[in-house]
């Protein structure tokens, strides 16, 4: 797992200073927030898993089916 993954034509990464998911559609030249800052958990790692993203967090494993816009406990 890592802090940046390729998923459905985008790069997604964890921004640790904002504790949010960011995306890039231009190979990382610019980044935009996809999820708001999480106050529930701290993102640690990301993994692409077919149609979903998996995130290891300070509160366990979460998944997203909408490119990291919302997260649900696995």
Automatic annotation (TrEMBL):
InterPro entries: WD40/YVTN_repeat-like_dom_sf. This is Photosynthesis system II assembly factor Ycf48/Hcf136-like domain-containing protein. It comes from Flavobacterium saliperosum S13.
